[in-house]
Amino acid sequence: MDINNERLLQYFKQFSAIGATPGGGVHRLALSDEDKQARDLFVELLHDLGAEVKIDDLGNIYGIKQGTNPEAEPVVIGSHLDSVPNGGKYDGAVGVLGALEVLATLVDAETTHQRTLIIVNFTNEEGARFPKPMIASGVLAGVYTTEDMHSLQDESGTTIREELERINYLGAPEHRLTNIDSFIELHIEQGPYLINENAHIGLVQGIHGLSWHDVKFTGKSDHAGPSPMKDRRDAGLSAMHALTRVEDYVLNLQDETRFTTGRFQLAPGVVNAVPGEARFSIDIRHPLNDTLKERIETIQQMIEDEAARRGVKSEMSDLSYMPPVPFSTRLLQAAERITSQKNIDAPQLYSGAGHDAMYMSHLGETLMLFIPSLDGVSHNEQEESRWEDIVTAVDVLGDLVLEQLNR
Q1: Is 379 part of any known ligand binding site?
Q2: Which of 80, 90, 177, 251 pairs with 307 at a CA distance of 20 to 30 A?
Q3: What is the signed CA dihedral for 405, 173, 49, 124, rounded to 10 degrees?
């Protein structure tokens, strides 16, 4: 597809300015004022292209270019515009803007096609402000209920429904996606594999499963001076020892297991007091469902054992679970054929991060295309991808989409 590189770059510059941070990233939390600004611009650009715009009761935005066969199920492409705090400007946005450029190219060429094309921006993909990632696509897939999403609160107690109403993006339930032919999501890799392979694009076979947990250690808070070291029930040190033990276990596996603690809090949280409580998050990932469940059980047992050994109590609660998702073999083969025809080396890989594509796979055949991430950096202001790789990926996306529209 002969995409317009300059227009795509202009799109990217416009959206990168919304919520821009001094470090070169973006701070655009879901349903914030910055997210509203990005949404408004997206809707404006869709209207400029003559697309029909619909918004559902989850805040998802759809730009629609009708096909010639109203009975044929639509092809859907897109991603998300929200970010993590002080995140990168490529994550999610390249998928939405790449989809927008594909739409614009089809409009420019006055291309007709059998299936309807739908461009989508999903609500709260990141789960950074409202702590259930990809919940809007999850509701579409039937994994969550509307109430699950609308009642979800941020740290201030504000619900998603309240914020959808505030920014005027609480649409109608009849606008939701239901039956689709296929969904294709363009995204940055967020890891180092493709850049280390000197590749310009990657074809994604599926997504690792992931499991989020909250862990609380309860000991006894004491004065830091009079309290003897040997008599302490220090929740903070106990938690740290448990995490170090788990890290050693995962490193020794030497497989695809991923383990992360991104949040760690101590109470009372003062310099001269032994912590009586420690709370931390756990993120566990693996591409095989049975193995993922085994890892969760093993890690939970290790945490309980370490807590008991140090005389403190432990509680591990579930926050979110998403099983591994295999993608469409047919779409993967089609993408292989297109990249081969263009003489583009396109390694295949699994995604270690969750994406809306994992839930969209419940509605139709699904595939992801990855753009290499420089140094594998993401969820960081220093997140970067080569512009020539972005152009290559959008070009492949366009050809793949056009093929599906006329299938």
Answers
A1: yes
A2: 251
A3: -90
Backbone angles phi and psi of 287, in degrees to 5: -80, -10
Reported as a single tens digit per residue, the pLDDT across 123-160 is 999 999 999 999 999 999 999 999 999 999 999 999 99
Does residue 175 have a known ligand-binding role?
no
80 annotated as belonging to a binding site for a ligand: yes
- Where does the chain hold its CATH 3.30.70.360 domain(s)? 209-322
Kind plus residue range of the DSSP H or E element containing 52: strand 52-55
Compute the half-sphere exposure of residue 238: CA atoms within 13 Å on the CB side of its CA: 32
Which phi and psi angles does 104 have, rounded to 5°? Answer: -60, -40
The sign of the dihedral angle between the CA atoms of 88, 90, 96, 101 is positive
Annotated binding residue at 47?
no
- At 61-88, the pLDDT tens digits run 999 999 999 999 999 999 999 999 999 9
Domain 209-322 bears CATH identifier 3.10.20.90: no
What is the location of CATH 3.40.630.10 in the chain? 5-207+324-405
pTM for this predicted structure: 0.83
Crossing angle between the packed helical segments 5-16 and 93-108, to the nearest 10 degrees: 140
Any binding-site annotation on 91?
Answer: yes
